[in-house]
Amino acid sequence: MTFDTALPITEVVSGHYSQLVKHQRFSENYNDLHTRPFTVAETPLRISHISFLHGDKSSYESEQKHLQALCDRYSINPPKLGDTCFYQSFGEFEVRWERHTEFSTYSFTIYGEDSKPFEHPPVSLIPTDWLQLIPGEVISALHVEVLDNGASIQIPDKKTPDKEALRQYFEGQRLIGSELRNGAATIWSALRLHRDGFNRILLLNSSLNECQTGRVLRALLELEGYRNMMLLAFPEAQQVSMQVSKMEAQLARLVRQISGERIVDEEQRQLAELSDLAAAIAELIARSRYRFDAGQAYYQMVQSRLGELEENEINGLQTLSAFVDRRLSPALRTVEAAKRRLDDLASRVDRASDFLRTRIDMAIEAQNQTLLKSMDRRAQMQFRLQQTVEGLSVVVITYYVMGLMHYLFDAAHTFGLHFSSERTIAVMVPVVMLTTWILSRRMHKRISRTQ
Question: Domain range spanning residue 433?
């Protein structure tokens, strides 16, 4: 294909491509790819990361006002209305706020190395009155220290600090550790809450550049929030499982009653009890399904963040991935089992209800057949009675007609007509009776055709 004229690229773009009709989400779809970017992190640095579970629908407005109060205190431009993320330097520290579907995260960062890891976390610089009034409930809290490998915590005659030497920074608790990205860094953590109510992770950077460090930090921070959000489904699954066990016992009792001797008066009560059980199950599904589905989604995100770390073992130590998955996998299986049991129970209750309804319908149908047979017998009796009445009515009508004719024959003598009225009436009786019977039959047929 050829064109008659060739336009400059800039003219083609501005004159043609810009005129295309775009979907309302055209620009937003590209912008969404760049929301919540990772931090370009220079080593060393310290981070305090806190996740708050949303309280209600008005929490967004409350967070906006609360962030604006902090910005006003430090003369910083506040986030715009509708923003779901906010990154700003406040001089001594940086604040990173991100709002997710169910929770919001606040990250406070200080660049530079402290005299001792975790001794002065960034959250200690945040005004206490502002910090205590952040809307929501804390669901995860984490301190992260990023240091050059062995900078100020180097153990003499060793290239890297060993586990026992690092335990002092974790209040003597048992540590897990792993190498990241083929030895480019190592991470150490106890994955426990310390005296200040925060978990701690120590990242010793050997060769990660600023962007790689930022991506590792983002994975670690998101891992902390998603891990705790996933575990919210675990107690819900345990509670649902207990309720399902009770409902299963109730259903088994009802099924035994249904399959036993049929008692008509009991069937309606059993059906009502099954209906109540189905309603209770529907309520339980509505209350728990979102949390179960969210737990499964959070588990997948945890696995994704663990995969980004690219961990390797250090001298046979348990890695972060192995430790976290050892706890989350059983929790996920419990959630999936509770969800599956709940759905299975709902289907079994439906089948039992259908069986009982079918049984009741068959009983009603049998009663209807008996009733129809009774009605048929009554109709036949009424038909025979009607035939008898019709026969009697012919006799009655004949009797009255002959009575009228008797009066006419008696009056005929006054006109000079002489004949025997008794003989005439005797002759006329069968004629009148036959005529009456024929007329009544014709009338009966006409009515039958009309119906």
Answer: 379-450
For residue 146 the two structure tokens come to 């990023």
The CA distance from 99 to 297, in Å, is 17
**One-letter amino acid identity for 381?**
M
Is the pTM for the entire model greater than 0.85?
A: no
Answer yes or no: are the C-beta atoms of 200 and 320 closer than 8 Å: no
pLDDT attached to residue 156: 41
Q: In what order do the strands lie in the sheet with 94-99?
A: 85-89, 94-99, 103-111, 45-53, 137-148, 199-205, 185-189, 176-180, 311-313
For residue 8, is it within any domain? no
Question: What's the token pair of residue 178?
Answer: 């792993």
d(CA 228, CA 328): 10
What are the residue ranges of helices labelled H in 157-263?
Answer: 163-166, 210-231, 233-259
Q: Taking the CA of residue 7 as centre, how many other CA atoms within 13 Å lie in the half-sphere pointing to its CB?
A: 9
Measured over the CA atoms of residue 368, residue 373, residue 377 and residue 380, the dihedral's sign is positive
Q: Which of 321, 345, 370 is the last residue of a domain?
A: 370
Residues 392, 328 share a domain:
no
d(CA 266, CA 42): 76
HSE-up of 403 (CA within 13 Å, CB side)? 6
Q: Is 33 helix (H, G, I), strand (E, B) or coil?
A: coil
Instruction: Determine which of 23-27, 68-72, 252-256 has the lowest per-residue pLDDT on average.
Output: 23-27
Residue 146 lies in a domain: yes
Whether 155 contacts 166, CB under 8 Å: no
**Residue type at 218?**
R
